[in-house]
Amino acid sequence: MTIHSPASAQSPSAARGTGVLGSGLSDGVAVAAVDALLTVLPTPTVLIATAGSGAVVVGRTGGAVHGAVVASFVGATSADLAVVLADPGSLDAAAGAESGLVSREDIIRPALERAAGVLGLGVLGDARIDDATTLFLDPETVVFDLVGDGVTVGWFAIRLRRNGTAAATGERTVVGNLGRINSVEMALTVEIGRTRMTVRDVLALEPGAVVELDRSVGSPADILLNGRLIAHGEIVVVDQDYAVRITKILDVAESLT
Fold first, then answer.
1. Which class does domain 185-256 fall in?
2. Whole-number Å distance between alpha carbons of 169 and 156
3. Per-residue pLDDT tens digits for 228-241
4. Do 151 and 45 contact (CB within 8 A), yes or no?
5. Mean pLDDT throughout 65-75?
6. Range 6-161 classified under CATH 1.20.120
């Protein structure tokens, strides 16, 4: 889903902070992430990012950072990200969030996706509204003030999570570990296509409306495990129920692209 952002007309610049880095997340990556975020974050004015402080944010928000839109990115470089708006109600009202069709998470997720994109290959988890107090107060977190017309309208936080290197294990150990989890249920989803729509178009949907997808007839369907693409297949019918025939299993590198 897309929503127009005045910031997309030009690339904002993030100021390099003193005392906010040193988490292992390089200055350049942090700045690149917030720059990318601001290119699509929907705001009435063009924003710039300046070095911020998590403690100051917590103080400004009454001692706890409630109502943050947070998401976790898992990949070669993993990270936790959060966006907090000083006046989230205005964004909700402008997008018609009270209708139930569009949520604040839907509106801000594209910006989080753009920010996470600078971290390389990986998967961004579901965006959700949550308490981000711990994230903002963590000394490993890099915090930016989002400023428009001299007024701070929100904050962005990003914290690198280092991926541990798995120790070599024998085949017997691996099989034993798998035995512990082989009864765990996972969500398998078959996707035949996607599209992007403006908030206006979403709110205009009604019974009988036709939404065109990005796949042509005969194209393979995507098979996702817990939201991650793992295979391609073709839709078939088995005993009057839809099913999918696996045509290709993707390796890890392919599934992350």
1. mainly beta
2. 40
3. 788 899 988 888 88
4. no
5. 88
6. no
